[in-house]
């Protein structure tokens, strides 16, 4: 007991905490090291003789001989055993110093670049003017956020007789038949070269420099491209940050402001019923299940609709857009996610928000449900009434009346300025870390790097959760560090088990130095595949398409080990056609899925319960997510019952306005499970707590008097 008391006294000493910090132990590491040190002393059968003597002197109260501070050298020695980086902390701090990113690009610093910022809302012609300069230059590079955008510029450029190559993570298409590099390149932003000189560079959607996962790519392009002129296009909210960043490189920014080319009107009435749909309408949903639900209800009314969502292959998206845009096609309605916000030219007359909340990932990598931001709302609403389309004026509204007030508020707010630019550790930095910490896993190296990294106020380190997930997944496979790093940066959705399993198999075969052949891939994916008969099969086909994308991405980096890119690209195009057939028949697939599913386990959310809650409802989940997720989710799961009890949103809930208790594991619970906000274990715990709280009267819907009245009534019955 005396030993434990003195150890705790040692832990609480400010002087000891200060000494720990001087030796590289921040509050978190200090705490972890102390827990381990305390366990070593309390549970070890034999501590070193010198430590034993010190402990004895302290515990016996020999003030002149021993003081708790004397434990520090032993504590530090123990800490260095469990945290080897403490021995080379100075070197590691230098490697992870991210305070001067402009210095990483000496080629760009060697020239004086002219920066032109084309600022304006969606449909203002800002990108058009930048592209005109790109086309007139002797050489140029276009950097966009999506393959679709890069492909569009590639097509435009070659149609204008300006030879242009296409470079994405998965492919390189040459304009010249002899595979000679063209002077112009259209690429996805992660693929831009910072070593090749150009006359003009265009960086599209510059506001994405703040993106928690991908912002680093915009920072790298802005600071590192070797071009005489850099044309950046995007929201005015990014002007101040870009100007500040360029001040550190000694480059001035010329701002050109643009206004929207066609008027956009926020209507004073909501749609309220799908019976009120008109040609040129686009319903925007923020979940795939809402897409399924709404499209089925539309087709039940005898109307044809096109469907576009994020996980569809680019070819299918383009075909659906073409179908919707074609004046001779009977399809006049579009149901889409916010995937339409950029990358597709669409003839939309009216945007209808089915919901104004969406699942998001915050800077810490946590899942939240929150109202859409002003930036997102403007980006999506701006798709209506596009300049040059058949609709000269755009309109925007909501599906539900009580969402319209919130939408008007969101659209009227100023877009908050972009405050910081993303950064990401480079392979070279991680290799230097690995040299100092040879026994650390890649996931641990990344953790240590981020914890030690120093950034100034204009930058932040991007969320590396996906990277760490893949690093942990393939940790047991013997790979050299550079190859391991490449596998961990592969673009995949970690919520797709089939794609993750495939990456694991790719890495295992790669480590055995066995090439991943076309035949192997066909066996693994069971190619050839038939057209889908239900939604589950359609989702699987989309996952297979992602697997082909993954193969092509890796073939670009390890050509010898993934040798059959041409064959894989051919079957990927065929798969795209098969998926298109499925999407064209999506309502049949939904019906097949619902009829096959057992009650309460349908994969497709019932059509009368869309994800549609107000800002206030949404923040119940998001505001408390980090600190008390169980409590917040409990509130979220009970939201339908509480709203009913308080007589709110009666028009919204319709036939689903039942207490959650009678509804069981209903649509909201299933949705939270699918979105990763809830696990089966948490759901069981919530149900148990909910039932206990009902028994104890904690979540009764009546007043205290009602509770007293009920207890009296119960007492009478017992008598």
Task: Give your account of this protein's structure.
The structure is a single chain. This protein is α/β, with parallel strands linked by helices. The chain folds into 4 domains: 85 residues, Orthogonal Bundle (Rna Polymerase Sigma Factor, Chain: A); 157 residues, Rossmann fold; 148 residues, 3-Layer(aba) Sandwich (Rossmann fold); 145 residues, Methane Monooxygenase Hydroxylase, Chain G, domain 1. It is 48% helix and 12% strand. The protein contains 32 helices and 18 strands. Strands 4-3-5-2-6-7-1-8 form an 8-stranded mixed β-sheet, sandwiched between helices. Strands 9-16-13-10-12-11 form a 6-stranded parallel β-sheet. Helix 13 crosses helix 23 and helix 26 crosses helix 31. The longest helix has 23 residues. The chain is globular, with a radius of gyration of 29 Å. The C terminus is likely disordered. Keywords: ATP-binding, Helicase, Hydrolase, Mitochondrion, Nucleotide-binding, Transit peptide. Belongs to the helicase family. Its cofactor is Mn(2+); Mg(2+).
């Amino acid at each position: 007991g005396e030993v434990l008391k003195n150890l705790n006294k040692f832990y609480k000493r400010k002087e000891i905490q200060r000494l720990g910090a001087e030796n590289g132990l921040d509050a978190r590491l200090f705490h972890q090291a102390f827990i381990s040190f305390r366990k070593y002393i309390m549970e070890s059968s034999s501590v070193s003789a010198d430590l034993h003597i010190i402990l004895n002197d302290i515990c016996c109260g020999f003030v002149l001989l021993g003081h708790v501070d004397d434990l520090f050298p032993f504590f530090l020695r123990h800490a260095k055993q469990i945290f080897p980086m403490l021995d080379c902390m100075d070197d590691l701090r230098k490697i992870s110093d991210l305070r001067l990113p402009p210095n990483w690009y000496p080629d760009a610093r060697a020239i004086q670049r002219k920066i032109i910022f084309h600022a304006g809302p969606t449909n203002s012609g800002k990108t058009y003017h930048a592209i005109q300069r790109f086309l007139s230059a002797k050489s140029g590079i276009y950097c966009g956020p999506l393959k679709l955008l890069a492909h569009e510029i590639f097509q435009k450029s070659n149609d204008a007789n300006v030879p242009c190559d296409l470079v994405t993570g998965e492919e390189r298409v040459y304009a010249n038949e002899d595979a000679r590099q063209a002077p112009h390149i259209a690429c996805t932003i992660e693929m831009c070269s910072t070593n090749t000189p150009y006359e003009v560079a265009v960086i599209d959607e510059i506001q994405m420099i703040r993106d928690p996962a991908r912002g680093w790519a915009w920072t790298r392009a802005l600071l590192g491209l070797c071009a005489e002129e850099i044309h950046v296009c995007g929201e005015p909210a990014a002007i101040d940050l870009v100007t500040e960043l360029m001040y550190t490189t000694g480059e001035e920014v010329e701002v050109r402001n643009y206004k929207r080319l066609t008027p956009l009107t926020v209507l004073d009435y909501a749609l309220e019923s799908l019976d009120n749909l008109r040609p040129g309408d686009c319903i925007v949903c923020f979940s795939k299940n809402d897409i399924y639900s709404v499209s089925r209800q539309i087709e039940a009314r005898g109307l044809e609709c096109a469907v576009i969502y994020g996980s569809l292959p680019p070819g299918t998206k383009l075909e659906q857009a073409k179908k919707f845009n074609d004046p001779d096609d009977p399809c006049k309605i579009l149901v889409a996610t916010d995937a339409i916000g950029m990358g597709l030219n669409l003839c939309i007359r009216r945007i209808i928000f089915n919901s104004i909340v969406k699942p998001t990932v915050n800077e810490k990598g946590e899942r939240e449900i929150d109202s859409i931001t002003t930036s997102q709302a403007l980006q999506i609403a701006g798709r209506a009434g596009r300049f040059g389309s058949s609709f000269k004026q755009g309109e925007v509204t909501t599906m539900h009346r009580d969402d319209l007030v919130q939408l008007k508020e969101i659209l009227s707010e100023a877009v908050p300025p972009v405050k910081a630019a993303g950064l990401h550790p480079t392979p070279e930095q991680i290799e230097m870390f690995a040299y100092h910490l040879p026994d650390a896993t890649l996931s641990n190296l990344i953790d240590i790097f981020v914890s030690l990294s120093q950034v100034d106020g204009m930058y932040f380190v991007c969320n590396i959760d996906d990277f760490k997930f893949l690093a942990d997944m393939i940790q047991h496979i013997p790979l050299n560090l550079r190859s391991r790093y490449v596998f961990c940066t592969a673009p995949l959705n970690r919520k797709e088990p089939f794609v993750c399993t495939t990456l694991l198999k790719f890495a295992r075969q790669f480590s055995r130095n066995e090439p991943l052949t076309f035949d192997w891939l066909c066996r693994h994916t069971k190619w050839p595949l038939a057209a889908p008969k239900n939604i589950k099969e359609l989702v699987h086909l989309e996952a297979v398409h992602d697997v082909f994308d993954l193969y092509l991405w890796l073939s670009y980096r390890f050509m010898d080990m993934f040798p059959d890119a041409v064959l894989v690209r051919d079957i990927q195009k065929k798969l795209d056609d098969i998926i298109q057939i499925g999407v064209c028949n999506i309502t049949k697939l939904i019906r097949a899925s619902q009829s096959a599913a057992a009650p309460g386990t349908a994969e497709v959310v019932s059509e009368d319960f869309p994800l549609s809650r107000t800002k206030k409802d949404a923040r119940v989940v998001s505001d408390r997510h980090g600190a008390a997720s169980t409590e917040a989710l409990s509130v979220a799961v009970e939201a339908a019952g509480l709203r009913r009890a308080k007589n709110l949103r009666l028009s919204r809930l319709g036939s689903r306005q039942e207490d959650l208790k009678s509804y069981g594991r209903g649509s909201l619970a299933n949705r939270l499970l699918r979105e990763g906000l809830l696990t089966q274990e948490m759901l069981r715990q919530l149900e148990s707590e909910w039932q206990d709280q009902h028994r104890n009267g904690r979540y009764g819907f009546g007043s205290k008097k009602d509770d007293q009245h009920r207890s009296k009534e119960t007492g009478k019955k017992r008598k």
